[in-house]
Amino acid sequence: NAGVTQTPKFQVLKTGQSMTLQCAQDMNHNSMYWYRQDPGMGLRLIYYSASEGTTDKGEVPNGYNVSRLNKREFSLRLESAAPSQTSVYFCAGGTGLAQPQHFGDGTRLSIL
Amino acid sequence: DAKTTQPNSMESNEEEPVHLPCNHSTISGTDYIHWYRQLPSQGPEYVIHGLTSNVNNRMASLAIAEDRKSSTLILHRATLRDAAVYYCIPNTGGFKTIFGAGTRLFVKA
């Protein structure tokens, strides 16, 4: 059982390049989330999708776009990468309100 | 959103119990209290959650104060694998989960 799978695991970009981070879950989660975690910090919510076909902004959405392609997949896109977006990105899925989230192993993104 | 206060770090000896406190004095009556932990270089892992009553599972126990203004995560016998950052998160019933800085637990052999 794969759970929540993120690809790629590592990526290095140059400033201005674009990139899509992929996330897929096989746990039948209705809701999906994208977080970023900077060194020594807690996670911050970028965007979330409460259900298939809906997306909403989280705490730090600027510079990102998302697509809930279907129930299983939720992608995060950086249109023009900036060094401030260097971070570890985590995708998560959950069954709904007040229910626990299950996280992927993260994508480590460096922007030079 | 309810705010939480956790110690920055705690230390425990291996095979001893660990009590990780969390203050969430602004929690509302319908907020669940979730605990996650994050091992080095991994994503957060769900540990336990509860509303009013104390809760037990295979990983830990959660003791919730009667006034719900605080809770304590209890690891009954700490192992080296329990060394992680532990996050206490009141769930507001919405989708916006707020992770604070958490408590970094060090376990000594």
Verbal overview:
The complex is a heterodimer of chains A (112) and B (109). Chain A has 112 residues and is mainly beta. Chain A is 0% helix and 50% strand. In chain A, strands 2, 4, 5, 6, 9, 10 and 11 form a 7-stranded mixed β-sheet that branches. In chain A, strands 1-3-8-7 form a 4-stranded antiparallel β-sheet, with no helix packed on it. Chain B is mainly β and 109 residues long. Helices cover 0% and strands 46% of the residues of chain B. In chain B, the strands form 2 sheets. Chain B has a 5-stranded mixed β-sheet with strand order 1-9-8-3-4, with no helix packed on it. Chain B starts with 8 loop residues before the first strand and ends with a strand. The mean pLDDT of chain B is 91. The chains are: A mainly beta (112), B mainly beta (109).
Q: What keywords describe this structure?
A:
A: mainly beta; 0% helix; B: 109 residues; mainly beta; five-stranded mixed beta sheet; four-stranded antiparallel beta sheet; 9 strands
Write the SSE topology.
The complex is a heterodimer of chains A (112) and B (109).
Chain A: E1 4-7, E2 10-13, E3 19-25, E4 31-37, E5 43-49, E6 56-57, E7 65-68, E8 74-78, E9 87-94, E10 101-103, E11 107-111
Chain B: E1 9-13, E2 18-23, E3 32-38, E4 45-50, E5 55-56, E6 61-64, E7 70-75, E8 84-91, E9 103-108
Parallel strand pairs in B: 1-9
Antiparallel strand pairs in B: 2-7, 3-4, 3-8, 5-6, 6-7, 8-9
